[in-house]
Write a structure and sequence with these properties.
The chain is an alpha/beta fold and 263 residues long. Helix content is 40%, strand content 15%. The protein is elongated and about 65 Å long.
Length: 263
């Protein structure tokens, strides 16, 4: 995982016309980046909040979040990049707000929100690189412009936003799972957060009908045969890593509705 510095992100924004900010629809408020959005506004570029992984939540919830961001004065669509759902709606929204043509699109977001999958979906099987991106900063010397439509070009570069904050969703996205400090404690925080919104999440994911985080960790380890030789003790460190990985891959589901309009 290689995160881009904010200076690089700013340069990439300047090279684009429309910026797509991918967020995880399970927790859009935490996985969005106000700092990125501020940079886009100050650059006078167009921004679309792309609510990804919409296949994990009811359509009514996805619609509620789209409407919420609309009331905040922001363009928004919901998609499922891995299921290839909503890409046509996204393309149409890009064309609608584009100030000029051809339009150059940048995809950004936190790690593990689905950027690479969306890039591949938009590129399709028959797309081809047109040229290296002019003026690419050092981090993106291999960045390429891909033609993904008649008048639409895509900057193919990771554009990974550095997670900033102490919410557990940001902690698990900030570094590879094997590098997370005190991974058991982090997994317990994640389990508690998920259960707060979906008490059946771990029953649905693993068939485990308990709510105590440590009991869930032990049960996952035992189900997968992860035990210490000799003692037979559950290897809960491995279970903690698996739960974090499964969550990031969309196998553990929860959601909540957006805040009610003020006033």
């Amino acid at each position: 995982m290689k995160l881009a510095g904010w200076g690089v992100i700013k340069e990439l924004i300047e090279m684009s016309d429309v910026v797509l900010e991918l967020v995880d629809i399970r927790d859009p408020l935490v996985t969005r980046s106000p700092k990125l959005e501020s940079l886009v506004r100050s650059s006078s570029k167009q921004l679309i909040i792309v609510l990804n992984k919409a296949d994990l939540v009811p359509r009514s919830v996805a619609e509620a979040w789209r409407k919420y961001f609309t009331t905040q004065g922001m363009n928004s669509v919901y998609i499922s990049a891995r299921e290839r759902l909503g890409s046509r709606v996204l393309r149409n929204e890009i064309k609608r707000i584009a100030i000029k043509t051809p339009v150059v699109v940048l995809i950004t977001g936190l790690p593990k929100v689905g950027k690479s999958t969306l890039i591949n979906t938009l590129k399709g099987r028959h797309s081809a690189s047109t040229s290296p991106l002019p003026g690419s900063p050092g981090y993106t010397t291999k960045a390429q412009l891909y033609r993904v439509g008649g008048n639409m070009y895509l900057i193919d570069t990771p554009g990974l936003i550095p997670p900033e904050g102490d919410d557990v969703d940001l902690v698990i996205r900030a570094k590879p799972i094997d590098e997370i400090n005190n991974v058991i404690a982090v997994a317990v925080r994640l389990i508690n957060k998920v259960i707060q919104y979906n008490r059946n999440a771990f029953k649905e994911a693993y068939g485990i009908d308990v709510l105590d985080p440590e009991a869930i960790l032990r049960a996952v380890a035992l189900k997968r045969g992860w035990t210490a030789k000799g003692s037979g003790e559950a290897l809960i460190t491995e279970a903690a890593k698996a739960i974090i990985r499964d969550y990031l891959e969309g196998k553990i589901v929860y959601y909540y509705l957006p805040p009610a309009p003020r006033g």
